[in-house]
Amino acid sequence: MAAHKQPLSIVKMKQMKEKNEPITMVTAYDYPSAALVEEAGVDMILVGDSLGNVVLGYDSTLPVTIDDMVYHTRAVRRGAPNTFVVADMPFMTYNSTVSETLSGVRRLMQEGHANAVKMEGGVEIALMVDACTKAGVPVVGHIGLTPQAVHQIGGYRIQGKTREDAERLLQDALALERAGACAVVLELVTEQVAEMISKKLSIPTIGIGAGSVTDGQVLVFHDILKYTPSYREKRFVKTYADLGAVIRDSVSQYVKEVKGRSFPAPEHTFRADDQVLESLYGHRKVES
After folding, report:
1. pLDDT of residue 272
2. Is 273 known as a binding-site position?
3. Residues of the chain with pLDDT under 50
4. Would you state the pLDDT for residue 155?
5. Rounded to 5 degrees, what are φ and ψ at 29?
6. Co-location of 148 and 262 in the same domain
7. Which domain covers residue 269, as residue numbers?
8. pLDDT tens digits for 19-45?
9. Is 50 marked within a binding site?
């Protein structure tokens, strides 16, 4: 268990990049997972809108609302009071007006108690990133595979495989940095392009499926632990335990024992004393 620590700051984040000290981030969605992640010593927690797929049972992130994000961010903050928490801005909450964007950001910061917000996109959202940073809100960018735009980019495809694509990703990353972003997530980006972007930026890059050359890494709590009813293997994910199997086996054993009346056993049962039995039955109940 990690000792009590001061939460990461955007200043320390840049210092870690300068020192080549990798930043660790885990995506978590509730109180118990956040508490365990903080105890394990991660630097940052991302409350991702991937909760739509992982927790809420949707087939994409698109149905996730700002209310969903506030609710789950608040729970994560209760579980991890000493960790830097980043909350995703959900689909279509930062693509209209600055006023609407800041309204959603305000809710995640004031009600959800996030330390920062995350937005998907590059050049096209630079204005919103600039407005948020000028309002005093740290913003983490997200380029490469952007799940909120999965229909537009043609599915879950590796990004940065062509020269044109690599140049586009670099320009997006530079635009986010100029707008004041404190870090950038690179998702499903070829390792060579991720390395080039990481070297060009003065702010940290956090990779997922972007190789080992980024300034940090992020994985989803449920992927790390195979905590899902039907786990789908992903090349860029390493699983460290199979909690799904443990949970299924444990609950199956519970069902078996209840059906067979072996649970609860005497050691799980509370007994009343003789006076209570006499008041209930008028005499001491004889053991059968």
Report:
1. 80
2. no
3. 1
4. 59
5. -130, -5
6. no
7. 246-281
8. 999 999 999 999 999 999 999 999 999
9. yes
Question: Of 192, 204, 143, 158, which Cα lies nearest the Cα of 17?
Answer: 204
Looking up tokens 């996109």 gives 121
Expressed in angstroms, the distance from the first to the final Cα of the chain is: 49
Clarify whether residues 58 and 102 are in a common domain: yes
Question: E-assigned strands of the chain?
Answer: 23-27, 44-47, 84-88, 116-120, 139-144, 183-187, 205-208, 216-220
Looking at the structure, tell me whether residues 187 and 211 fall in a common domain.
yes
C-alpha 112/C-alpha 109 separation (Å) is: 5
Domain match, 137 and 256 both: no
Report the distance separating Cα 106 and Cα 113, nearest Å.
Answer: 10
In a domain, 288, yes or no: no
132 and 251 together in one domain:
no
Both 276 and 232 in one domain: the answer is no
Closest alpha carbon to 69 in 50, 44, 97, 42:
50
Q: Is 49 annotated as a binding residue?
A: yes
Tell me, what CATH number does 171's domain have? 3.20.20.60
Which active-site residues does the annotation give? Answer: 187
User: What does the angle CA 27 – CA 113 – CA 74 come to, to the nearest 5 degrees?
Assistant: 60
Does 118 count as an annotated binding residue?
yes
Distance, in Å, from the CA atom of 233 to the CA atom of 243, rounded to the nearest integer, reads 15
98: phi then psi, degrees, rounded to nearest 5:
-60, -40
Q: In total, how many domains does the chain have?
A: 2
Q: What pLDDT sits at residue 284?
A: 58
